[in-house]
Amino acid sequence: MKTYLALLLIACSSSVALAQGNWDKTPYQTKSLANDAIKDVFVNTSGGSISVSGAAGESARIEIYVRGNNNQELSKEEIQKRLDKDYDLQVTVNNHEVHAVAKRKKNFNIDWKRPLSISFKIYVPREVATHLNTSGGSIHLDNLIGAQEFSTSGGSLHMDNLAGRIKGETSGGSIQVNNSKDIIDLETSGGSINAKNCQGKIRLETSGGSLHLEALEGSITANTSGGSIQANNIKGELVTGTSGGSVNLSAMACSLNASTSGGSMHVDMRQLGKYVKLDVSGGHVDLTLPANQGMNLNLSASKIRSSNVSKFTGEWEKDHVKGTLNGGGIPVSVEASDNLNIVFN
């Protein structure tokens, strides 16, 4: 069965902000999907925001939100008139799939001073895969199990309570991911990344923002080319680095490889994993290590200061240390261009 529905998305990127604040408004149109047992959602649009939710208790449906330029309220008649004149909008439902496509008509007489901001929410069963693309708005995903693939050229990404393969990117917005697991691969070219309470194989990349990591567990790679890194309560393995900021890592219980080319580093290791490797070429290092764990130390800095050192065997000089602590064990390597301050706690 096929259902055709006039729907979808924005005329130009200047109206992106409008789409992101429309969720508290009355939808322009609502379409039930309760009888379609949706398994896949496909959206390809040139503008507004997209939200897909598998929240329990919600009936499966699409809600369409339409506003005029500068958040102008329009009558349904005026909206329909502009849609008919300037947009090709279609949603099809077939074989348990929703396909939504929005594109501007190839019409050189379009009045770009009268664009529409069209956003939509889709409520579906929890076990659903998504394939989403917008060139201007934000993307929201929550309470879904399955493969999620999504991208935006100018908006933020928001995820909560997802499980499966999660792959998303934005060219100009921030990323927030909470309470999610399995395979997480997220990238932004111009915003910060916040990740909290996630598990699995995690990759986070930003070219222009900071990283904030909280309560993550698994194999984690998180890098930024232009911001600071803050992390707390990380388990498993963390590989992280920045070319232009400081690094602050607390309550670490993991294997760790951390680097910065433009700031200082503060690391509190509560429990060692398989290794610790720190590389700091632009600032000092403050490092706290567990006093009773066996380690092989290989440290280099302009000046090394330490406290509570016991059961050490090897060479301990002003600017380098090489030897074993508590009989040896976990390799701990630090290279710092400035001072290294170590506390064994």
TrEMBL record:
Signal peptide: 1-19
Keywords annotated in UniProt: Signal
Residue span, DUF4097 domain: 223-338
InterPro entries: Toastrack_DUF4097
Pfam families attached to this UniProt entry: DUF4097
Record PANTHER family: PROTEIN FAM185A, PTHR34094
Name of the protein: DUF4097 domain-containing protein
Organism of derivation: Mucilaginibacter xinganensis
